[in-house]
Amino acid sequence: MTDASVSPIRRNAPETPTPKGPAVTLRRPTGDDGATIWTLARDSGKLDLNSPYAYMMMGHFFPETCVLAELDGEPVGSVVGFAPPARPNALFVWQVTTTERVRGQGLASRMIEHLLWNAPLKGQARWLEATVTPSNEPSARLFQGIARRHGVTCEVAPLFEESAFPPPAEADSGFEAEHLFRVGPLRQAKAA
Questions:
Q1: Coil, strand, or helix at residue 38?
Q2: Is 121 inside any structural domain?
Q3: Phi, psi of 179, rounded to the nearest 5 degrees
Q4: pLDDT by residue (tens digit) across 12-33?
Q5: Which part of the chain is the N-acetyltransferase domain (predicted)?
Q6: What CA–CA distances, in Å, run from 52 to 31, 32, 49, 56, 132?
């Protein structure tokens, strides 16, 4: 593979405003931010809601691969992710959410780009991964858009079929299949 076949990761500093919107600051969450991230997920009305404890654990143990976005001191978005141990050159995005106040202003992409540069991967990420349900068209567009901006592919493959989840009667909810979106290969950023 040649350098021309991969795309550079762009650095977006936390204090840089989103091009179409207000100045939003990005920061690493802590365990204490778990309730805030849980509230953002709940209020989105679109995400599978995990326990508050799960978000506390992510903020405590994986703060370098998660981000909390704030506007005027108010939380307006988050990304919860991790670097899979078997693929240390990948960033796996578990959940992304933005509030109505900032939706459609590019904040979700900005948060993900921020993590690609600032996470433990420090610009060395070659792959961006996430799972997306077939009905979640906004998330599919998000990851496909990142792939387009980087000039790389966004491969989509089945990962978890509906039958892998607990039956709706047991889980108090139905679940859709989850498809793996894999964006890359991204060019490694040069040391600043």
A1: helix
A2: yes
A3: -100, 140
A4: 333 434 445 558 999 999 999 9
A5: 24-192
A6: 10, 11, 9, 6, 22
